[in-house]
């Protein structure tokens, strides 16, 4: 089978995940169009990429001219139509099935026929998202972890109709980004989030029980299990809204064992999503 090589990458959604994916694609030598409906998200994402690359230059890890080349490969836009001639688009919009379906329907309309449409969903059905398009054989999961620039794995869930050439093209792209890949079946939560959610959901229950303070629980897990962050630090870091949506999706598939506690649900209702809003289980606002 001839390898379909992806040279121009579109990234839709410039939030926590999207800007990191755009940086990785540019570092892999691809032309990148980073698109978002919010101009502010694009400006923030672009600034974060620049800051990280500048830091690498200052640390002597990246030559200045290479840094300039990587940055020059990334263009930003609020117009989804600008993704029209990409070889692959990686979607990183919020974890809401209706939003994903609407976005894929639109991408199918505007992006060239031979392109691959990939989703960074954490647990939603690739097959269901693919069914919103006229090219379900070219729709696939490309699940990066946060922060995408640092985390080594890309999980690649394969939909019911995804073609083998599409799997190979996405594995190749992930490897060019310097990642390890893991191809798996399209089931809720795939491998990593199904297992991680069990742990995180239990943490929301001990929070409701006031078993100990969040600081004590995070400390216990870090020192006992060698995790880089405790569960509440991880909630705040990854976005409480996103993590609760992942768990809710698993309830639908696997039942109440993935049902989160009331305390974490109330944080979502209050708009306290963690580091990105300034407050979550911890307070990040400056006095
Ligand atoms: N946060 C994590 O740790 C993490 C890890 C792996 C995967 N994911 C997945 O990545 C996806 C994005 O998550 P995130 O944490 O980056 O979310 P986020 O809220 O930080 O960013 C989402 C971005 O999408 C934009 N957006 C919303 N609707 C849009 C539309 N219709 N068209 C274009 N842009 C739109 C928003 O303006 C925002 O900038 C989700 O599917 C999530 O499950 C998240």
The CATH architecture term of the largest domain is: 3-Layer(aba) Sandwich
Query: What distance separates the N and C termini?
Result: 59 Å
How are the strands of the biggest sheet laid out side by side?
3-2-1-4-5-6
Give Rg in angstroms. Answer: 19 Å
Helix coverage percent of residues? 40-55%
In quaternary terms, these chains amount to: single chain
How many alpha or pi helices?
11
Q: Count the strands?
A: 8
CATH topology type of the largest domain:
Rossmann fold
Bound small molecules, which ones?
nicotinamide-adenine-dinucleotide
Structural class: alpha/beta
CATH superfamily caption of the largest domain: NAD(P)-binding Rossmann-like Domain
The CATH first-level class of the largest domain comes to Alpha Beta
Order of helices and strands: EHEHHEEHEHEEHEHHHHH
Strand content: 5-15%
Q: Compute the average pLDDT.
A: 97
| Poorly predicted runs of 5 or more residues | none
The profile of the biggest β sheet is: 6 strands, parallel
Task: Report the principal-axis shape.
Answer: globular
Number of domains: 2
